[in-house]
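Lab manual, section 2.4: Encoding a predicted structure.

Procedure: take the sequence of the chain (159 residues), apply the prediction step described in section 2.3, and record the output as structure tokens. A sample record is shown.
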Amino acid sequence: MENSERLLPPCRRRTQVRASGIHGKGVYAARPIREGERVLEYKGEIITWRTALKRHPHDPGQPNHTFFFHMDDGHVIDATHSSAPAKWINHSCEPNLEARQDGCRVFLEALRNIEPGEELSYDYRLMIEGRKTEKVKKEHACRCGSPRCRGTMLDIKKR
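Recorded output:
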């Protein structure tokens, strides 16, 4: 081993993708993450809503499951074919991450200190057209298990 190799710090990933207790795959902290730290970027193809609607559903067997991320300007990030891990972050009504848009990029930042082994999550606050009936809420049911769970991943306005 050369001297220069010994001086390099070990490469430590911040996150790890593995089976989730919430749903399917999830993303977990592999090392401590500080409040306010940018953890991951939600990466994919930037498309219009019209294109997103043409592509939907990705999987007819799970029509309400997508890798779409709505952006402030009305565009969508489609992470379906992205290898970036952020697309595996699950929803929670009591999240430890928050999505922040910076231009045409979306970053997930820590809302609080996160310990190694903790599953990362953000509040999807999904927006859909039409009325949010009980049937529609159930189709977008939340599985986060939080005591503050609102029962759906939809963006429900409090009265």
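Check your result against the sample. The radius of gyration is 17 Å.
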